[in-house]
Amino acid sequence: MEGSEVVEPYVGMEFESEDDAKRFYNNYAQRVGFVVRIMQRRRSEVDGRTLARRLGCNKQGFSPNVKGKMGPGKKPRPNVREGCKATILFKMEKSGKWVVTRFVKEHNHPSVATAHAYTMVRDKDKKIQELTQELLRQDQLCADYRERLLNLLATIEKEADHLSSRVLSVVESVRKAEAEAFMMSCTDSLKM
């Protein structure tokens, strides 16, 4: 990265897609030394596709005053927004290309060209992906366990019905045997 020239965005600059435009601005930001924040997106009322996207420095705007909202054991976060005006606006043309229609270069804070902030963001994204995958895996396990449990309950119910009929059969056989034994004892008593 060092030693290579930083290509600066300009009004009228064209990109094949929204992703290309965002990728370009993220790379530019990394080289210049700031972190990009997604500011705004305008969508079509007809089909919901994105028509315009505004990105800016993560220090753009001001953080709301959150004093008094801190609960017990909560530490206040440092205020990272400083009212920076650096921003870029991309719009999709009728041709389908994305064009820079506004670009403000100036930052009101020092820039630090470092990959550290991006590494942190990438690490967080990676962690989110890992946790999402783990959540999906756990959901699948839960679904598998639920299916197994339902199958087991169905088998138990079938076996219980079968067992009930077998128990009834045994009880009936015991009653018959008792009745026969009683009849035999009565017959033996009469013979004496």
From TrEMBL:
Domain FAR1 stretches: 23-110
Q: Which InterPro entries match?
A: FAR1_DNA_bnd_dom
Coiled-coil stretches are 128-166
List the keywords (alphabetical). Coiled coil
> Which residues constitute the signal peptide according to the record?
none
Pfam families named in the record: FAR1
Name of this chain's protein: FAR1 domain-containing protein
The record lists the organism as Dorcoceras hygrometricum
